[in-house]
């Protein structure tokens, strides 16, 4: 690398220098501190490795166009730090042609240092997403007075169970994926909004045709979220969409293949749906419903154990039991 470029590394802002193909040639101390990458781990890599799906496509297009015509470019990028946290920054990239070789010098200014109100931090985005999903879920089942507490318990227990199962079995889910599952679990019965009240809350036994109609809530739910997310057209929420759809469609599948709607068996059932099904059944058992009394926690736990390998994934039931033994499952 040309010596004159090293001067830029002395700036107080994070600085990155790449070759014409965006391969990293040097970064400065501030860059290392902010991103968590040390020079020797990142030099030689493509600058795009930090990329997240959150930076709009148009940003990259205008960036490419400017640099291709030898112009400097400024814009906002959302990158990943090494620990996978998001890093929102305003960056200026300037091309330098030195002795026939092209270099790009990028100088970052962290958005955290700018005035508040110019961007949404990650925590706030997560909060908004959470409330949005909650309002959505509650309003679809507004006719059921007990639903709010059921949904809150399902979400809370799903969060605990995902984390515990991940620790116990090592399924390698990152924190983000875990929170997507917990967030999305609240939507599991969103399809019930399309089921007639007389059938849904019927106190007595159901006729076959009534059962068939109720079972439609899994498929209908997927259509509903598809429609909502198409309206939203928002990449931030979209990431949770496939997790949510798996939960909505498959939360009534059973490990032995006797569930619905697709009679999936074993690990063919998405993990998130296997987790939510245990939590959903457990909370339903320990709650009073029009057609049943409330069960004691011990009795509900016995039921989960009895259904290992039948209704439920045995390993996940074991994770649930370990939470119970630690006193983390209250009725
Ligand atoms: Fe359901
Ligand atoms: Fe439920």
Automatic annotation (TrEMBL):
GO BP of this protein = regulation of DNA-templated transcription
Q: Which CDD domains match?
A: HDc, PAS
Q: Which PROSITE patterns match?
A: HD_GYP (PS51832), PAS (PS50112)
Q: Which SMART domains has this protein been placed in?
A: HDc, PAS
Cited Gene3D superfamilies: Hypothetical protein af1432, PAS domain
**Origin, by domain of life?**
Bacteria
| PANTHER family reported for this sequence | CYCLIC DI-GMP PHOSPHODIESTERASE TM_0186-RELATED
Identify this protein by name. Answer: Uncharacterized protein
The source organism is Paenibacillus baekrokdamisoli
């Amino acid at each position: 690398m040309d010596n004159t470029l090293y001067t830029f590394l002395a700036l107080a802002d994070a600085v990155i220098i790449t070759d014409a193909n965006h391969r990293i040639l040097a970064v400065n101390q501030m860059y290392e501190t902010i991103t968590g990458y040390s020079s020797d781990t990142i030099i030689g890599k493509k600058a795009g490795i930090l990329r997240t799906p959150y930076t709009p496509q148009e940003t990259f297009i205008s960036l490419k166009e400017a640099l291709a015509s030898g112009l400097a470019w400024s814009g906002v990028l959302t990158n990943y730090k090494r620990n996978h946290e998001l890093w929102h920054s305003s960056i200026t990239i300037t091309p330098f042609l030195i002795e026939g070789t092209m270099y790009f010098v990028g100088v970052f200014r962290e958005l955290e240092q700018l005035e508040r109100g110019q961007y949404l931090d990650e925590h706030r985005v997560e909060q908004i997403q959470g409330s949005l999903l909650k309002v959505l879920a509650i309003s679809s089942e507004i006719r059921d007075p007990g639903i709010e507490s059921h949904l809150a318990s399902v979400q809370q227990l799903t969060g605990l169970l995902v984390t515990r199962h991940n620790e116990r079995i090592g399924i390698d889910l990152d924190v983000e994926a875990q929170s997507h599952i917990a967030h999305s679990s609240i939507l599991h019965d969103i399809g019930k909004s399309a089921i007639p009240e007389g059938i849904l809350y019927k106190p007595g036994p159901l006729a076959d045709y009534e059962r068939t109609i109720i079972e439609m809530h899994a498929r209908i739910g997927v259509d509903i979220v598809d429609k909502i997310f198409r309206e939203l057209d928002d990449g931030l929420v979209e990431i949770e969409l496939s997790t949510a759809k798996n939960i909505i469609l498959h939360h009534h599948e059973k490990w032995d293949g006797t569930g619905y709607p697709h009679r999936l068996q074993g690990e063919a059932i998405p993990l998130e749906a296997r987790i939510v099904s245990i939590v959903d059944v457990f909370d339903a058992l320990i709650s009073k419903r029009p057609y049943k009394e409330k069960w004691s926690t011990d009795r509900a736990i016995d039921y989960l154990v009895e259904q290992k390998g039948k209704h439920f994934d045995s390993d996940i039931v074991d994770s649930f039991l370990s939470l119970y033994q630690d006193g983390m499952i209250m009725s």
